[in-house]
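To the wet lab folks,

You asked to see what we're planning to order before we commit. Fair enough. Below is the target structure as tokens, and below that is the sequence we designed to fit it. If anything looks off to you, flag it before the synthesis order goes out.
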């Protein structure tokens, strides 16, 4: 019963995020332009000015995207660890497993964000 509930919850969240993605893609499609000759031109996703095309800006966008994905994965791990712990039913092995998942997810986030802060500090120090 519990597995069925979490399966439905996961499918609901997945479909909701897919709907948001489709809505955002439709909004982006509305930005396409068709010329009189019938050719389609798309806006440059990196921007039109020279500063937005620099490797530093592109690298910053990639790092921010990766951090967003890592944050989402950490959230999933926190939910999974908490659910494992809460649904253990007094089984000490499952309680320990849930605690270990939460501890390692926290440690992973600390390492990732420390590395990000260190890289950001080094890059801003070197470039200025």
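Sequence we intend to order:
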């Amino acid at each position: 019963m519990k597995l069925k509930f979490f399966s439905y919850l996961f499918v609901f969240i997945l479909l909701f995020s897919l709907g948001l993605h489709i809505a955002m893609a439709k909004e982006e499609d509305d930005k396409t332009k068709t010329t009189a000759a019938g050719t389609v031109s798309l806006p440059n996703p990196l921007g039109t000015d020279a500063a937005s095309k620099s490797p530093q800006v592109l690298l910053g966008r990639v790092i921010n995207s990766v951090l967003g994905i890592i944050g989402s994965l950490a959230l999933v791990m926190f939910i999974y660890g908490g659910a494992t712990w809460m649904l253990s039913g007094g089984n000490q092995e499952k309680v320990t497993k849930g605690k270990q998942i939460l501890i390692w997810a926290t440690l992973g986030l600390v390492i990732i964000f420390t590395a990000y802060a260190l890289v950001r500090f080094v890059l801003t120090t070197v470039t200025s």
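Structural context that might help your review: Strands lie at 33-34, 40-41. Residues 42 and 99 are 49 Å apart (CA to CA).

Thanks,
Computational group
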